[in-house]
Each structure stands twice: as structure tokens, then as C-alpha cells.
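User: I'm preparing a small set of examples for a lab meeting where we compare how different chains pack in three dimensions. I only have the primary sequence for this one, and I'd like the structure in C-alpha cell form so I can line it up with the others. Please keep the answer compact; I'll paste it straight into my notes.
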Amino acid sequence: MGWHRRDGTGTRGRNTSKAKYKGQLISRLPDVGDGRQRVTQSAYYRNGQAKTVTDAKGQIVESSYDRADRVVQTRHQHADGSLEEIRTFAYNKVGKPTRVTDLNGATEYVYDELYRVVEERRQPGTADVPPAPSPYSVQSRYDANGNRTKCIYPDTAGIAGTGRVLVSFYDRLNRLTRMEDHGPQASLPAPAVTQYSYDANGNRLSLSLPNGVVDRYEYDSLNRVTAHSSRKGEALIYDCEYRYDLVGNRLRIDETLADADLPGNPKVRHLRYAYDQQYRLVLETWAAGNIRPPRPRPDGADGRGPDAPSGVDAETRSYTFDRAGNRLTMVVERPGATETIRYRYDDLNRLLSSRRVSTDSAAPPEETGYSHDINGNRQTKTVGGVTAHYTWDVNDRLVAVDRNGRQVFAASYDYRTRRLSKSERQEDGSLKTTVFRYDQGDSFQEFEGEAKKVEFVRGSGMGGGIGSILYSERAQIDGGVEYFHFNAVGHTVATSNASGTVQSSNLYEAYGGIVLSTGSSENNRLANTKERDFSIGLDNHGFRYFDPEVGRYVNPDPLGYKDGPNTYLFTNNNPINHVDPLGLETRRHHLLALDRDTGALRKEFERALKGSQLGIHDFCVDIEKGAHDALHGNRGGEWLKEWREFMFDKNGKSLNRGEADVYKKLHQMANANGIDLSKMINYNTGAATFEKYAGRLKEIGWRAVSSGKYAQYLRKAGKAGKFLGAAGTLYTAGRWILGPNEAFAEEMDLPAGTKIEDTWDSIKRGEFGLQWSKGSDVGAVTIGGTRYEVGGKYPLYRSKKEGEDTKLEWFDKPSELTAIRMSEKPGEFELWFGNLKMPISTSDVLVDTPQEKRVGTSFNQGGEQ
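Assistant: Understood. Below is the C-alpha cell output for the 865-residue chain.
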């Protein structure tokens, strides 16, 4: 259940929203209009609970509650009055759901004495597409720390406790170290063992698969992966190296991938990237590397022939965007031809058309037209005289696609929007139906008819199943088992068989399109490990469908403005560095180690917020995101004055605005100024510049946890040990902005009235590694986790702007750091190397300065390590 928000554009062009938490409306807002007199209306019970919500289509969702104000039934009705489905909810004495029924069946939950799910049962309903799947259940066991130690899958017939058994082991820091697969699977060792190892910061160092392939990882001082390899012994599957700019975006990726068709002739690519001030990807280019493969004998030579091309064509893709983040152009340059695609949008960020023009005279211009329904869902796509029609249910889920009147795709879902089945039109004209079984949120078995098509075994990943598949049992594969290998954002770059031989390999462009494929595989978990539906060209991201052709989602974000006012964007146009696990919210790479699962920590946040203002979690995440982007974009002052006058009186005292008013004001200001909310927020609290420090406070907390210095950090920050200290500080700042809330302060064990400047004082006192005294020399400064001492020698370079060009000046010999002084300019200090002065802003120290002493130091944003 969780949050649900309906969004639109008000009659005066102002964005508006309605938010729900666990099915219950938390704010009674006026009716919502979209500027075209189409309105979403709500009706309420006397106690304030939402009774009905009627959207702009005329579709109605009606809710009923028990005496504890828990939703017990929802009725979902079409605009013509016909009933789509009725959902019912039953709970145990502590409010945990025990049974939920929906159009496609029933889901039951069994709990242990600590209210952890020990069994989930699924009963199919009468509306399931044929053939109806068998009932099944998944069982779980836990250790004292809540780690899942055993998972028991059903067999093909769905009988509980008779299928595959997975046993997991953890270290003292609750990290998965070993997983044993006890079958049933004759082609696997008994048991099949997967092992993990980690460094002191919690980063995954290695992953050893049962077929003998070992993945190894290397990291820099900011816990960012710099190298990754997948090999069996010396046999290559995938090698990759990464380089970053000073704010953590990947600038370079050099990858080598085994060719499944031509063993010994791997594919080599050297990729380079560029970004604008909002960190949107504006340039992606790759050049083919050359290799020297062995030459056939017996010519008596040393087995090395002349350089041979890698088989990867060089290519450049460049992008431009409007101020809302919509892609305006994409230019693709290949040897012999250049292709330009231009896009048009309406004022609600909905894609209207694209026009493709090529310099290749054999490729005529191509027009593609799009239309959307009132709720913003894609309704049609027309190209080459063929029109595809998209059908959505009352909950804005894609349920069917037909092409010129012939159905090519259909899908059904449960109440959690897990896709239970799909039907796709095949080349021979038949419809192939696939039925899915789920373990929590991820599918683990697929069926065609009564036959099991595939079963997945998953380990740790990046959320939403990204990068988590270890191997699959598939009847069509020689040997029965297919092992998966991923890059840093979870793209499936290769699969191998039981002997470790590469079966298939893929190279991708930034948005997940495959540019080169070798070998063969039935696998369709491709970009971000998401299921690709080839019949409609879309990827199923969980709560939404993603179109890699245009690099955006086909319907708005169900969570509303989680990633900014433009609700169609994918990873805010930065897919090289970010992922979206569920199609709901972008997850930034530098806040999440490669295998770090934040689910438990996030639940801890939510638990700590009970009894406080609902929605403060989301509001503070918005603060952190906007602060981070505003800092690096060096923007945000356009509407600072208006914001301050709204939030504070003339004496600087908070006006204690309510959450609904805050959201409304933010969206109104963003819309009125044509500003992307997520990129332009400048929270200046007077005592400290919030946009410089709020985001970093949260990131420091994450790093403290991953480095095993959790308790130490909490002691320094003076916070109770309930959850992340630095992120707690961010929540404190958010609570202070929104107004006092004693219940929230008590839950956090914080003194009432704690403000952001208190935390700033602790930074100045050196509790976050930054030490100085104004106007005097100090002994050391910590930048990016590395301590620089006065008297030490460090190699340096700096950049100078000359017109439109940037010139690098190198200092070949190490220079001695002679002094660290505060600048007279607020928010800056100076590093002195003899007579050479390096002015540094505090944000460079506190946010993103990843260099280490041994590789040299630059103090200029945008440079490459």
C-alpha cells in the first residue's frame, strides 16, 4: 500500500497534489483542476477519511474503513459505472495485513511472534488469464537480527516446502556472506554455494558463483567502484574500469566483453561522457578498442597476429533538454551517417511526436506521433501508418496493447502491482502467456501453461531486483543453468553456463538499448535487470513501464513529484550513474554501495517518524535532493527571497507552515518561474547555507554506517543510536523548518528546538574532520576522507578559464602544503603551497573531493580524476 499521490496542474497553471499514506488521505485539499476544466474530486467521511476519489476520467475509487481507521475495502469503478474490481483487507491485532483479495486472487500472510512474514500464500482468482496458475506459498526463516536465513520455494505444482531451499549466512555486520542452494537441481553441485566478501567499508569485494566464475571489485576512497571483473580463472567474461568527475559522475568507462560467437576475440569499448550543470547526460561517445587475438597455428609464429578490430562501431550520442528536463534532440553519429531525432511536448511534459532524419539517403525521414489520456498515460503511438493503442485500468496500470485492432499484449496484476501474467503475440500469430510467481517483490518462477519455463535464484542487489539474479534454471539451456553477470547499473552484460563458458553477451547505450549482442539466450532481464517485453518494446520497471527508445516512462510517477515536477523522467536523465529500482524514485549511486540494501534502514526511518508529522520523511528527502543539486549547479537564488518570506517572519522566526501549504508553495514557485524544483531549491536558514550542507550531512551518515563507524559517528554528532546520525540531523533541520513537533523530537531523542546551525557549529569544531582557526595556520585538513598535513608534499594541478576553453596548468613536482587559513570571504578557506594560494569553498571539502594523496589533488569541479 504506502503512499499514493494524484497530481495535476491547477487552473492557474500551478501544480497540485493529493497524497495518501497506507491508503488514507493525509490532507484534505481542494478539488484539483488541470487548466482544461478537468477536475479530480474527493469526498470524505466525518472523521476526515477519504470516502471517494473521482479522477479526471470519471473513474472512482471508494474506500471503507474499520473502527481502527484501517482500509477494509476499496471499490474500483470505471467512468461508465461498471465495476472493475473490489479489494478487501483483513488484519491481525497489531494491524499487519493477513489477507488481501483483489481481482486476480488472494494473498495471505503468516507471521511469527515478532510479526515477521514466515509464509506468503497466493491463491489465483477467476479473472486470471488462462491457464490459471496453481496456488503456491513461499516460506521464510530469520535469525535474531531479522536476517532471512532460509527461503523455501514451492515445487511446480505449488506445494509448500517441497521446492528449492536457499540457506543464507551473515557476518557480524549482518552482511550476506554465503548462500547455499539445496536444490532440487541435478545439474548443480549439492549444495550450490555462492560466496561474498567485503572490505572494511562494507563494499562488496568479490562474488563467487557456483560455476567457478568470480566477480571482483575495486573502490576509491569514496566507496565508488573503479574496477570490476568477471572471470573464471584467467578466462575473461567482463572487465570494466570507471573514472569519475569531482562530483561523482562517471566520465570514463573502459569495458572488455567476451564474444559468445568468437571466443578469444572480445569486444572492447572506450566510453566517454559529459554532463550539464544539472548533471543530465548530454554526451555519450564510444570508440572501438583494438586487440591482438591469437592467430591459428602451425605457422611457427608466436600466436600473435596484427591488430584486429573489436567489432564494435564507434558512435556518438548527444542530447539537449528543455528546462523541464524533456529531451529535445538526440543526435547519433555513426561512421558514414548522422541521425537527428527531434521531440515535441505539450505543457504537461507529455511527448507529442518525434521526427527522425538521417544523412543516409537510403533512410527516409520517420515521424512518430503520441497521444495521452487525461491521467497522462500513453494512449496511442503511431509510426509508419501503424497505430498502437494502450489500455489502462482504474489504477493507471497497463493492461493491454493492440496494434491496428489486433491485441499484441495483455497483463494482469495483484493489489501490490506485481505483474501476475502477460500475453504476447508471437511471429506465428499465436499468443504466448507467461504466469509469474513472486518471492516478496521479485519474481522467482515463470510458467507457460503447466510447464515451468524458468526459475531464478537471487542474492543481494541494488533494489527492485537490479543486479540480484545469480543464476536461473531454464530447460532450454544446455546444462540447465544460466549464470548472470552485470555492470555497475545492473545491465546484464553476459550470461555463462555451468562450466563458466560465455553463452551470450550484450553492450548497451546509456538508456538501455542494446547496440551489440553475441551468442543466444532466452533471457529477457536486460537493462537494469528489468524484464523487456519485446512485443511492445517496453521494460517493466515494477510500477511503471519504461520506453528505452525515447528514454522516459510512458506514464506519470505514481508518487507524484518524488523526482521533481516532470513526472515522466527516468533517473533525471542521468542513467549512467543512477537507477530507479521500482519506477518510483531515482536512487543515486553515491548514496548506495553496490550491494547495499537500504530497505531495513528505510523502515527504521519510517518507524522513527510514527507519531510525528506524516510526510516529513518525503519532505526532507526533497530538501536533501534539491540541496545537493542546487549546490553543484551553482543555482537556486532565483526564488530564495520569495521562499524566505513564505517560511519566516521579518525576525527570521519560522511561521510553522503546514506540510500541505509547503508542498503547494514549492510547486507553485517552481511552475511560476519555469524552474525544475529538484534542481533549483536553495534553503538558506541564515545561520548556515543549507543547500551546501544538508545533502552532505545525510551522505556522511551513510558512509559512517557503511564504514563500520556508526556508533563513533553518533557519539560525535550527539545523536541517539536509533538510526543514521547525519540523516537524523537532516530530519531535525526539516522539522525545524516545518515547525516544532515534540513527538518527533522525543522519538529522535533530540533536545527540543535543535537547529541546523548547531550542527554547523559541530562541523566547525572539527567533528566532521574539517579543522581550522580563522586567520591562522592549522595542522591538517581532511578532504574526501584523506588527511592532508601541513608540511606534506602533494602533486597538484589547477584549471584556468581562457575564453570558452579551460586550460590545465600542471605542477610536475610535488608542492609543500605550508598553511591552511580561513578566507575573509564567508564559506571559503585557503590552502597555501608556498606563495601559491588555492581558494577552496567548504562545499569542496564537505561534498565531493574524491582525490587521494597518492594520485594528486585538484580543487576544480568538473575535472577528471
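A couple of notes for your slides: The two ends are 44 Å apart (CA to CA). Residues 616-633 form the longest helix (18 residues).

User: Perfect, thanks.
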